[in-house]
Specification:
- The protein contains 16 helices and 15 strands.
- The chain has 415 residues and is of the alpha/beta class.
- The chain folds into 2 domains: 43-275, Aspartate Aminotransferase, domain 2 (3-Layer(aba) Sandwich); 279-410, Aspartate Aminotransferase, domain 1 (Alpha-Beta Complex), CATH 3.90.1150.
- A 7-stranded mixed beta sheet has the order 4-10-9-8-7-5-6, with helices on both faces.
- Helix 8 (182-191) links the parallel strand 7 (168-171) and strand 8.
- It is globular.
- The protein binds pyridoxal-5'-phosphate.
- Pyridoxal-5'-phosphate is lined by residues 33, 95-97, 124, 126, 172-174, 199, 201-202, 225, 236.
Length: 415
Amino acid sequence: MTYDSVRETDPTVATVLEHERTRQNDTLAMIASENHVSEAVMEAQSSELTNNYAEGYPDERYYGGCRHADKVEQLAIDRAKELWGAEHVNVQPHSGTQANMGVYLAVLDPYDKILSLDLTHGGHLSHGHPANFAGQVYDVEQYEVDAETGYIDYEGLRETAEEFGPDIIVSGYSAYPREVDFERIQSAADAVDAYHVADIAHITGLVAAGVHESPVGEADFVTGSTHKTIRAGRGGIIMCSEEHADDIDSAVFPGTQGGPAMHNIAGKAVGFGEALDPSFTTYAEQTVANATALGNRLQEHGLSLVSGGTDNHLVLVDLRPSHPDTTGKEVEAALEDAGIVLNANTVPGETRSAFNPSGIRAGTPALTTRGFGEETCREVADLIYEVIEAPHNDTVIAAVGERVDELTDEYTLYD
Ligand SMILES: *Cc1c(COP(=O)(O)O)cnc(C)c1O
């Protein structure tokens, strides 16, 4: 993509956009929720559909001029159905958070009960954190991961559900490195007559490719973001059975949103189309293999991984056992100086704070899009380790930065 028109009319913004492209080209994106979409997805997202008002759904709009919007939204829906095998799909949520909001509005009344994973154990704000609307509108209780194993405490979840009597149990997480046993959470929900909302925001692509168990057809509602491992246009998605279709559609519009972002829906259609190609399965498998290689190598260096490893696209490092005096924020900042971008993250049993936590979270979706294989991911683990060992040593950071430059030159991204 060129920014010629922006450069002509608004050089200030054009410069920012060009700097951001350079930043993405020249650094290793290891934020586990991020990815690099294709030029095709970006073009679709910047199309004239951004001008369109299409309140309503395909063939049932409140405005004229929606012929082409209808077509592209229907394509996104049909492709999503094929990817995940869902009966009903709504592609209008502006984000994963709006997708969750839509489900809550569809089936809950204010002060109804949500049971979800604690944020510091890997949950998400939209699952009922007090700073989020969900924590303010609903009565929220939380389950945890087992302090010893780092795995979801499924037994504790079941017990809490029996005591609390939730209307909704939320599964699906932001910083959980293990395969989620959706079936087990479904049976806990069935036992207390609660709905099960499986939020697969992070693992949409892994589920679509069959490299992670799918909750579709089992959980009452499946929500997600469309720009993480699935690598499509930015936004959210809701999947459910026909039974809940009308409730979900009216909760999204007019319940929580106005006009849909049709340009992003076009980006979803294009990205879903790409994900239907057999090469996407290879991509998803490689993403997981890369995270395994990264995690194994970090462990060989003596670092401690929450749960002892990974089954998916991310690893969560607990710095406390190996580097008790080093915080996640320190490592995050030093790595960014070296061109490796990841985030500080709380770990189960956090002894610092959410703002300056004891862990780092690292994912492989974007590196895999770039073409990295296991060998390169092992080398990235070596680089991360060098910086963790010396987060305030400028010589080390500069040397790691030089190697990152070589890698980003070899594995190119956007022109
Ligand atoms: C990223 C994420 C979301 C929200 O996604 P946004 O698109 O940023 O609103 C919701 N749930 C989980 C588990 C996530 O990881």
